[in-house]
Design goal:
2 domains, alpha+beta, 4-stranded antiparallel sheet, Immunoglobulin-like, 189 residues
Length: 189
């Protein structure tokens, strides 16, 4: 009986996995704070959040921040590392400076060399294709972070490591799998 129960469960899970549509977008998010700055946290009252969506070759960025200690001077995505000061990968050239709170949104075509900092581009093969591959690998590996700089903290006032957000279907599927495994385990006992 156990063999048939396991085989049936495996078959059902295989069908479910095969029929769940894959998302066309990959979403990354983070909470921005001074405590996340590295190598030394900063005593900032500022906070914020960043949402980054990758759809094919387009990177959509949305940042909301408030309470910076001084006017903002720049913002960008850095790549690639955790707990270190990594190079700027995608500079937000249209970021509004001179304010302590605000929102920012922009889209970047990752097939264009104009979307990357010169240093990141040169460090990654000097082509948009190689820079895009490095950035996407960094995003998927949890090695990128968003950063907002200010006049009080030119090295960065608030920062957050970008992490992938599971799509709802994946979370629901994972919950269903865990429930099925728990039921199978209860049957054994």
């Amino acid at each position: 009986m156990h063999f048939f129960a396991k085989t049936g469960l495996t078959a059902v899970l295989g069908i479910v996995f095969a029929t769940v549509p894959m998302s066309a977008a990959t979403i990354f998010s983070t909470t921005l704070s001074g405590a996340n700055e590295t190598p030394d946290p900063v005593p900032s009252t500022g906070s914020g959040s960043a949402l980054v969506t990758l759809v094919a070759d387009i990177l959509n960025v949305s940042i909301t921040y408030t309470g910076l200690s001084a006017p903002g001077t720049a913002a960008h995505i850095h790549c690639c590392g955790v707990g270190i000061s990594a190079p700027i990968a995608v500079p937000f050239t249209t970021f509004t400076t001179g304010v302590t709170s605000g929102t920012f949104s922009a889209s970047y075509d990752l097939t264009s060399t104009a979307s990357y900092s010169t240093a990141f581009l040169m460090a990654n093969g000097n082509t948009a294709a190689s820079a895009e591959a490095a950035l996407i690998a960094g995003l998927n590996g949890g090695l990128t972070y968003a950063n907002v700089h200010s006049t009080a903290f030119p090295g960065g006032e608030i920062r957050g490591q970008l992490a992938a957000v599971p799509e709802p279907a994946t979370a629901l599927l994972a919950g269903g799998v865990l429930a099925a495994l728990a039921l199978l385990r209860r049957r054994r006992a």
